[in-house]
Amino acid sequence: MSTNSFVTDIKSNVRNQMIELLNARLADAIDLKLAVKQAHWNVKGENFIALHELFDQIATRVDDHVDTIAERAVQLGGMALGTTQIVAEGTTLSAYPTKATAASDHVKALSDRLSAFAGSVRKAIDDADEAGDADTADIFTGISRAVDKDLWFVAAHKG
Q1: Averaged over 7-33, what is the pLDDT?
Q2: What percent of the chain stands above pLDDT 90?
Q3: Alpha carbon 75 to its chain's center
Q4: 10 Å Cβ neighbour count for 158?
Q5: How far apart are CA 62 and CA 44, in angstroms?
Q6: How many helices (H) and strands (E) does the chain have?
Q7: In CATH, what number does 12-155 get?
Q8: 65: enclosing H helix or E strand
Q9: Three-state secondary structure readout of 115-150
Q10: pLDDT number for residue 112
């Protein structure tokens, strides 16, 4: 729900729709960032240092996506909803296997989550475009490109 309008030429119903969309993807992005950090902290085995460093780099990029998504919701006059309670309730990503330690398990788990997030972001591009909010669609397009690249980096480690 829009609480303030900084963007005067976007109709309030479109702003409200975009704020809801942004917060839905915000929950997923925060969940994804925490999953990547879980892998970063706990990966063991072959290719440890390469994966440990890759996961940390991806977490930093996902954190940038989180910030961009949250700030767009606020720019549209809404609230960025990013508490752990809201994220736990709203994420569409599956729970991360917290007992995973083997590199191959983390690679599979992160590949699955990056792929799911990429799909929801591509749908968000279409939804924002259909609503007439080219700027929000463009934000999601940039995120989509970056997530696809990160998915490629992680999936390249599959055996």
Answers
A1: 94
A2: 92
A3: 18
A4: 9
A5: 22
A6: 5, 0
A7: 1.20.1260.10
A8: helix 48-75
A9: HHHHHHHHHHHHHHHHHCCHHHHHHHHHHHHHHHHH
A10: 98
